[in-house]
Write a structure and sequence with these properties.
The chain has 230 residues and is mostly helical. It is built from 11 helices and no strands. The radius of gyration is 21 Å and the shape is globular.
């Protein structure tokens, strides 16, 4: 009987320890989620266009990943990368970030540092190793002429290739203080023209199919028009 009682106590303690570990894991996930939301709010405060833009990209990124049949376990990392790929822009001065005219060589070099800044921030969070890597390489080019690593083709992480395409599309169709957004057809034409050069052809094809299904909603969100005059 004594042995049975000891086994029961041991089992009870094990269950309690297990439940405590699960509780701590849940608290950690909740904290990480809160931090991600806080960073997105920070982007909104710094630049309203960037914050809203990132939220759209996070939704599109998961849909593209699903269409490309990427493992579902990687969806979260891709979503976070799409949401916070530009968080490093908080390290770029407003005089550069919001400049209407063409950037000087020195200004462009500093602007091009933002993916590295994003990586340096996201990598500090446990569990976001892939997301930080995707953010780091979202300005790589399929032909190897991008930055910061000069990676080429499938050397570029798939999450980065997805963010690259949807980031470019959203930037093209969005209104800015210095220009009006492009119409959908023109943005798609430019994506297709750069397919295999700047962008992964498979990602371009998958995203164009998705974007074409929700043109009106997308342009309503950007404050532009699908049929805007170029």
């Amino acid at each position: 009987m004594a042995t049975q009682g000891h086994d029961w106590l041991t089992g009870s303690a094990s269950i309690e320890s297990f439940l405590r570990v699960k509780e701590l894991e849940e608290q950690q996930r909740a904290l990480l989620k809160s931090a991600i939301c806080a960073f997105n709010q920070l982007l909104d405060l710094r630049d309203l266009n960037t914050g809203v833009h990132s939220t759209r990209l996070a939704e599109w990124a998961v849909r593209v990943a699903r269409k490309l049949q990427i493992e579902e376990a990687d969806f979260y990392q891709i979503e976070v990368a799409a949401l916070l790929h530009d968080i490093g822009k908080i390290g770029v001065p407003d005089t550069i970030l919001k400049k209407d005219g063409k950037l000087t060589g020195e200004e462009r070099a500093l602007m091009n540092k933002h993916p590295e800044y994003s990586w340096s921030i996201l990598r500090l969070f446990s569990g976001l190793d892939k997301a930080s890597l995707y953010a780091l390489h979202h300005h790589e080019s399929y032909d190897g002429k991008g930055y910061p690593g000069g990676l080429k083709g499938e050397e570029i992480p798939i999450g980065s290739r997805i963010v690259s395409v949807i980031d470019a599309y959203d930037a093209m169709i969005s209104n800015r203080c210095y220009r009006k957004g492009l119409p959908h057809d023109e943005a798609v034409r430019r994506l297709s023209e750069s397919s295999g050069i700047q962008f992964d052809p498979l990602v371009v094809k998958a995203f164009i199919e998705i974007a074409g299904q929700e043109i009106e909603d997308v342009f309503a969100a950007t404050g532009s028009s699908p049929a805007a005059v170029i």
